[in-house]
Design a protein that fits this description.
InterPro entries: ATPase_NBD (IPR043129), GppA/Ppx_hydrolase (IPR050273), Ppx_GppA_N (IPR003695). The protein is an alpha/beta fold. Helix content is about 40%, strand content about 20%. It has 14 helices and 11 strands.
Length: about 350
């Protein structure tokens, strides 16, 4: 096991705290046989863990090369109140550390030997972000890596880019997070059917938590929704100008990865309970997306709480996400959107496995 001590970590915790959590650039270049991999994504709203091993059987998409061993997801709202106070609150820290302790225990139980544990916008923007990372190290033995915006965009593209239409000359990937929204132009690589080049990207300091806290998320009337959308449109303006010359063929489409679009997909399908297997990879037409958003906007807060694809933890955030999605659709018109219930974690795992050479020839 690759290990080094950090904080009070020992045994499997030591591997997770240092050597095993190093970036892909510092990965071992052996064949990686026997490794169990983990990726943790701590965002402004969610704490998500994915544990996997390489899948040796040939599959249709690169992302299917991951054989999932275990997973965990919890809404922790790390960035709650961050926009006003500029700091991560004590309550948010305690909620998050509790979730991270569960992640640590899962990684130890599954014998994880290679991992990458990252934190994004909340830790990037908080005045006490470094202090929070230190407390996590002391309490859990886990060493969080606060990644920059470009790295976050790259992981998202790597994790779900295989869902892009292989015949499309370019695709716009978007990831609506709690505290930021990443947009990535993916262009088809020359002489490669599925490979994608990251042409342009941006990261907006705009997410469902920040937008809902600014405009309100429980009661969202037409005026409030319009104000949210206008705010998102203004934020998109620079990227629109930057990408104006990129060619868009007849198969151009949007590729969305976030709780907003997966929730919309569940509402569109009329699911009583969210089902990843029906949502991941789903195509939604422009008309279907509009209808699903209208249906959500027609629900009051209590109805959103009661919906099996939304629930009480997302009920005050989902319409802020819809406003951002509406702004993206208006700015970058497309006949269809593909929904991805995958992203950062899968991208991290694939990069770790590639660095170890275990995906070669798969």
């Amino acid at each position: 096991m690759e290990a080094a001590t950090a904080g009070r970590a020992g045994g499997a915790q030591a591997a997770l705290a240092a050597g095993a959590t190093g970036s892909a650039g510092h990965a071992s270049h052996g064949n990686g046989n026997g490794h169990t991999y983990a990726a943790l994504d701590l965002g402004t709203n969610n704490c998500r863990l994915l544990i996997a091993r390489p899948e040796r059987r040939a599959r249709r998409r690169n992302s299917d090369l991951l054989r999932v061993v275990d997973a965990f997801s919890r809404i922790v709202r790390l960035g709650e109140g961050l926009g006003r106070a500029g700091r991560i609150s004590e309550a948010a820290i305690e909620r998050t550390i509790t979730a991270l302790e569960i992640c640590r225990d899962k990684m130890e139980a599954r014998g994880v030997t290679r991992a990458r544990l990252v934190a994004t916008q909340a830790c990037r923007g908080a005045a006490n972000g470094e202090e929070f990372v230190g407390r996590v190290r002391e309490r859990t033995g886990l060493e969080l890596e606060v990644i920059d915006r470009e790295t976050e965009a790259r992981f998202a593209a790597r994790g779900c880019g295989s869902l892009a239409d292989p015949q499309a000359a370019s695709v716009l990937l978007f990831d609506i997070g709690g505290g930021s929204t990443e947009l990535v132009w993916l262009t088809r690589a020359p002489a490669a059917e599925e490979a994608r080049d990251l042409h342009s990207w941006t990261s907006l300091e705009l997410g469902v938590v920040t937008l809902a806290e600014h405009f309100g998320g429980r009661i969202v009337d037409a005026k409030t929704f319009a104000a949210m959308k206008r705010h998102a449109l203004d934020a998109l303006e620079s990227f629109v100008k930057e990408t104006a010359e990129i060619r868009r063929c007849s198969r151009f489409h949007l590729l969305g990865t976030s709780g907003t679009v997966t929730t919309l997909a569940g509402v569109h399908l009329g699911l009583e309970r969210y089902d990843r297997w029906r949502v991941d990879g789903l195509w939604m037409s422009d008309a279907e997306a509009t209808k699903a958003i209208q249906r959500l906007r027609g629900m009051d807060f209590e109805a959103r709480v009661a919906n099996g694809c939304i629930g009480p933890q997302r009920a005050d955030l989902v319409l802020a996400g819809c406003a951002i999605f509406e702004a993206i659709r208006e700015t970058f018109p497309a006949a269809r959107t593909r929904i991805a219930d995958r992203g950062l974690r899968e991208g991290m795992l694939l990069e770790l496995m590639e660095a170890d050479g275990v995906l070669n020839g798969a």
